[in-house]
Amino acid sequence: MITFFKKYSMNHQLDILAIEANILKVLKDIYDPEIPVNIYDLGLIYEVDVENDGKTIVKMTLTAPNCPMADKLLNEVEERVGTVEGVSEVIINLTFDPPWDKSMMSDEAMLELGFL
Question: Coil, strand, or helix at residue 17?
Fold first, then answer.
């Protein structure tokens, strides 16, 4: 199998990195409605992929599959990420594989919640 790679200028690659950095800033400003920690430090964001056309795919989870605030949180992620300059479309891929557990939290989140 042959895979073809598109060549992009260094500026284009830097633009993608800048978009990703701005998305991470936005995600760190979105808080779980039931836990006073942002969703990034909680470990709810598994992957952020910005494609060359600005289409952005966010792979994320929730603290529990039956989270009563799921719709609100997913809508907020979609809306807020969509405001980042350079993002043309946002697709949220919700997954529970692997299931979330507290070991996915950052040290900052663990400290905030009294686990450290």
Answer: helix
Q: What DSSP string describes 72-88?
A: HHHHHHHHHHHTSTT--
Give the model's pLDDT for residue 13. 62
Q: Judge if pTM exceeds 0.90.
A: no
Give the contacts of 72 (CB within 8 A, at least 6 positions apart). 33
CB 4 within 8 A of CB 44: no
Q: How many CB atoms lie within 10 A of CB 29?
A: 11
Domains of the chain: 10-109 (3.30.300.130)
The DSSP output letter for 31 is B
**Phi/psi of residue 48, each to 5°?**
-130, 125
* C-alpha distances out from residue 78 to 17, 74, 92, Å: 19, 6, 7
Distance between CA atoms of residues 17 and 45, nearest Å: 17
CB-based contact 42:63 (threshold 8 Å): yes
Q: Compare 96 and 5 and report the one with higher pLDDT.
A: 96
